[in-house]
Amino acid sequence: MMKRWLPLFLFAFAMPAAAQLTVDVTDESGEDLVIAVPVMPTPEATDTPAGSTEALGRQVAEVVAADLRGSGLFRPVGPGGIRAVPFAEVTAPAYSAWSGAGAAALVQGFVRANGDGQLTVGCYLYDVALQSELTRQGYVVAPRDWRRAAHKCADAIYSRLSGESPFFDSRIAYIAESGPKNARVKRLAIMDSDGANHRFLTNGQSTVLTPRFSPDYKQIVYLSYVERRPRIYIYDIGTGRQRIVTESSNQTFAPRFSPDGRWILYAMSVGGNTDVYRVSAQGGAPVRLTNSPGIDVGGSYSPDGTRIVFESDRSGRQQLYVMNADGTGQRRISFGGGGYATPEWSPRGDLVAFTRIAGNFRVGVMSPDGSGERLLTDSWQDEAPSWSPNGRVLQFFRTTQGRGGKSSVWQVDLTGRNERRIPTPLDGSDPAWGPILP
Amino acid sequence: MDRAEATGFGVATAGHLALLAALTFGLATTQMPVAKSDAIEVSFVEDVGLESTAPAPSAAEPAPLLAPEEGPPEPAMPAPPQVQPAPQPPVARAPAPTPAPTPKPAPRAATPKPAPAPARPTPRAAQPKAAPSKAPPAKAAPAKAASAAKGNNARPTGRLSGLLTGVSDRKTESRSTATPAAAAGPAVQASLGAEIRRQIKPHWKAPTGADSEQLRTEVIIALAQDGRVTDIRIVGTTGQTASNRPQVPLHREHAERAVRLASPFKLPAQYYDAWKSLRFNFDKRLSQ
Prior knowledge:
The structure holds two protein chains of two kinds. By secondary structure, chain A is mainly β. A five-stranded mixed β-sheet of chain A has the order 5-2-6-7-8. Chain A has helices spanning about 1-20, 55-70, 95-100, 145-160; strands spanning about 20-25, 35, 45-50, 50, 75, 105-115, 120-125, 130-140, 170-180, 185-190, 200, 210-215, 220-225, 230-235, 240-245, 250-255, 265-270, 275-280, 285-290, 295-300, 305-310, 320-325, 330, 340-345, 350-360, 360-365, 375, 380-385, 395-400, 405-415, 420, 425-435. Chain A is built from four helices and 32 strands. Chain B is built from seven helices and three strands. Chain B is mostly helical. Chain B has helices at about 1-30, 90-95, 105-110, 120-150, 185-200, 250-260, 270-275, and strands at about 215-225, 230-240, 275-285. Strand 1 of chain A pairs parallel with strand 3 (about 275-285) of chain B.
């Protein structure tokens, strides 16, 4: 029976295909998505060491809105100036009220004190037009970690709405600078991705440069000048102790962890020839990876650990090169005029960030095969980019023109359109982003 | 030599002046052949029309139509949730007999039973009877027409003065109700496309991110006669790069979302064949 009718069905389906109207629909508005973030209510106002749950509900919403705004992709409104939601409405949003207010998405949540002294923070994302729930998350945190719950909530929303991996719940290490130019004090400092929870790690007696987090956040590798000689140290965040990675009378610099945290790449100058070396993070004998007569420096691993990008002046100017992790197969990838410096492989693997030196210093990206180069910033001096954990945002430091040039930490996304300054108590340089917190 | 030079110079000057004058006046009087071409109206149509716009020549005269002039689609009017295009033509035509109480309805009603020979008084009697029974629909007609006219685009004026517009005095036996050129020609296709784009564009929001402007998602949808979307099929997404790959599922989700939010589409029912299946290409262009 069905078989007899099948040809007829096929014919019926074939007909519209032959006479199909095609409509091209283009989004050229360029407008950011409006997200309403009302205050997160609490079922019962309770005092905690971090304040009452009622106050925390407002603060969590403020951090979520600030994170989303900082990503440059969204236009959050609230929590001030928009309607407050009762606790019962958290899971049953009043869609019509929000669509009337022009919001396309809605973030609601709650803060509740548990009996055991912990906080539960709920986080819900709704599509106002479709009137549907897009995602929901819940976090149990100690009251003092309420900011992390807020970052996690912002991460969940960012991931759901952008398709990208999260990055708000992460930390940044950088060099805090103070004092006059000729006697600059440079201290190692860490902070949350939004600049909160700022903390100095070193006292500034010795100058510190180029910090990098280990993948597990337990250590920071950095360069320190002790007795005017640059050496690589590891700072243990838990114990506060520092140790030297490799005992050597030679100058060493530009240390980077491998993605698995077992190795440290660095450059060492031996007899006037600088090459890229690798050493175990536990110490031991270094392995030389390059051997050209020029200066090879600034190695950075690909996320799978099989390749390394570095800079070399073997062609006469600083250019970028890629090689296998064992030093074989060295190949130049940058060919533009001027120079390229401080390459860093994206944790996503798709791009390499660098400083382009041609007149001014600019931050740019290219694919690991050297194609698709594009510059993201255009200022007097932007340099030393490091990636956000999701490989979508770059952090760098910007120095203003002139004798009293001040440096500050900046972020720019891969479109190059969303640039923002990260607030630091002092001048900042050499920022490095750690991975997403475990 | 000096004098000869001066003379030569004078002659040359005079000659130049004469030439200049001759050219000036000559140009002034000569008519320049300026080719003045009339502006040619051009309409850009992407697709070849489905069928010829020209109506098939028919020997039969067209049936009377109440409102022969079709206005442009009026999408601003709220559509009744369940528009039934099928019963529309009868409803729209129903008032026709009533305001013109010609014997037309009567004979038609009577024709089924011409058998009884002494029926002469009967139809007479039947006619007044039929008229009141038909009267209520006539009264309800304006209100009903308002909702029913959606498909026909006949705008209710609220007055009865225009009711007879287009009703011919001539008798016609034809029952052909085919709209002239109901098949969508190139111009109709183009304006249908523009109308569909206008309805869906507010709902299409491309994801933002690196290389997102290179993504292009193709979607084929099926529509019911009332404009509701009955089927959505994602054909594929082109323009994928290493950087925008995580956005591909989101791009598709947003495309589907746009279609769902635009449903039901408000489109002229007589061209249903042209829009019952649509192909969309969703993409993004950076405004800068």
